[in-house]
Amino acid sequence: MTDYDVLRVFCGANTGYGNELAVVRKGSTLPDPEERQALAAELGFSETVFVDDPERGVIDIYTPTVRLPFAGHPCVGTAWLLDVPELVTPAGVVGTRLDGEFTWIEARPEWAPPRTLRQYASAAEVEALPVPSPGEWIYAWAWEDEAAGRVRARAFRGRTDERGAGRSGGAGARTGGIEEDEATGAAALLLTARLGRALNITQGRGSQLLTAPQPEGWVEVGGRVVLER
Pfam families, per this entry (predicted)? Predict the structure, then answer.
């Protein structure tokens, strides 16, 4: 069996919650894309990262069903694990930095897959939402404190088109798909770009994502990372 680490990314203040991630540090042991896809499906995490060059930060990201050019929580988790100044993904070069208990990445909104960002009137309304019927990928959000930039969010996958059944924290998994993501860096990046301001997002059961717009259309996304095993 290929060796891999398991991380939780975007943990809460007590290091609970967060979205699980598998990282294969020696990606060279499994160079074939079909074999990588098969392992990602076997492991069943929302994403699995293969590190092709740990010094340069070259990585390859897979869900259980597809290869991704970029994804938020895999980049944050791998940046923490490798402690490198940047990650090289098929979408582009992702800047990284460590700042105390938080690990940050800098990426572009256009690298993120399309998401429906749906605003609700209150955090309580977001928390009470049932898992919707299969359909569009929805990032449901509401202001908890608009002046302070505090947001309550939940992410509903809707379709069974990207990740397959897996271990992402949430309400459970449909056959072939995840109903709800516990923490979604790419969606947080899109919301930050739309609102044009720094955000402190509580997503899922209690994960925390911090964001900040940067010059020339870049966005930073940061969070806590814990080594699970």
Answer: PhzC-PhzF (PF02567)
CA distance 152 to 154: 7
Place of tokens 């060059």: 53
Express each pLDDT in 120-135 by its tens digit: 999 999 999 998 877 7
Q: Within 13 Å, how many C-alpha atoms sit on residue 186's CB side?
A: 21
Strand, coil or helix: 6:
strand
Q: Is the model's pLDDT at 154 over the cut of 70?
A: yes
Q: Which of 64, 13, 43 is CA-nearest to residue 229?
A: 43
By residue count, the chain amounts to 229
User: What are 122's two structure tokens?
Assistant: 């209150």
Burial of residue 51 (CB within 10 Å: 0-12, 13-18, 19+) is buried
Joined tokens for residue 61: 């990201």
Q: Would you state the torsion angle of the CA atoms of residues 123, 124, 127, 128, taken in this order, to the nearest 10 degrees?
A: -150
In the chain, the domains with their CATH numbers are: 5-93 (3.10.310.10), 111-224 (3.10.310.10)
Helices 72-82 & 185-195, crossing angle to 10 degrees?
110
93, 85 Cβ separation under 8 angstroms: no
Model confidence, pTM = 0.90
